[in-house]
């Protein structure tokens, strides 16, 4: 297996684990607070009625999760395009590292309600995607 594809495999697993960790936070908070919005979940886990609102941490985790779903898939698609255009191998590592760190920091700052740090972390991930996209276009048109 080519080393860039190995990096892609590792990045995919790390981003999956990052997404999974947000789901685990949601589940643990729901179980601990016995706050379930869906009738069947409330009946199964607490034998009670559903909550009218999510716990604040669960609502925050929903925001983190939605933001990840807006960013992680396109990054992975760009990374595939980057690898397929035989771009710089070290770039695969650098762009992926920047993106992973940005997503982890974004989630941490989101949970801690820290601005401008959350926005800076988000922008770092966007910068990583823009650099990937630019590098792809350079490879397609000038290589």
SSE layout:
Elements: H1 3-33, H2 39-46, H3 56-84, H4 89-112, H5 117-142
Short descriptors:
single chain; 143 residues; mainly alpha; elongated
Distance between the termini: 23 Å
Rg over CA atoms: 19 Å
Q: Give, in order, the helices and strands.
A: HHHHH
The count of DSSP E runs of length 2 or more, i.e. the number of strands, is: 0
Binned strand content? under 5%
Structural class of the helices, strands and pairings? mainly alpha
Characterize the biggest β-sheet. Answer: none
Describe the structure.
The chain is built from five helices and no strands. The radius of gyration is 19 Å and the shape is elongated. The model has no long low-confidence stretch (mean pLDDT 94). 83% of the residues lie in helices and 0% in strands. It is mostly helical. The relative contact order is 0.13. The two termini are 23 Å apart. Helix 1 (3-33) packs parallel to helix 4 (89-112). The protein has helices spanning 3-33, 39-46, 56-84, 89-112, 117-142.
């Amino acid at each position: 297996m080519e080393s860039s594809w190995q990096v892609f495999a590792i990045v995919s697993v790390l981003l999956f684990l990052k997404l999974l960790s947000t789901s685990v936070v949601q589940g643990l908070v729901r179980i601990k607070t016995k706050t379930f919005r869906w009738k069947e979940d409330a009946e199964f886990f607490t034998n009670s009625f559903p909550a009218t609102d999510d716990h604040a941490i669960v609502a925050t985790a929903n925001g983190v999760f939605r933001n990840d779903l807006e960013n992680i898939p396109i990054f992975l698609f760009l990374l595939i395009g980057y690898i397929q255009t035989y771009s710089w191998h070290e770039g695969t590592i650098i762009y992926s590292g920047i993106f992973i760190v940005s997503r982890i920091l974004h989630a941490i700052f989101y949970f801690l309600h820290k601005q401008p740090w959350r926005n800076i972390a988000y922008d770092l991930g966007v910068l990583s995607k823009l650099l990937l996209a630019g590098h792809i276009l350079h490879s397609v048109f000038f290589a």
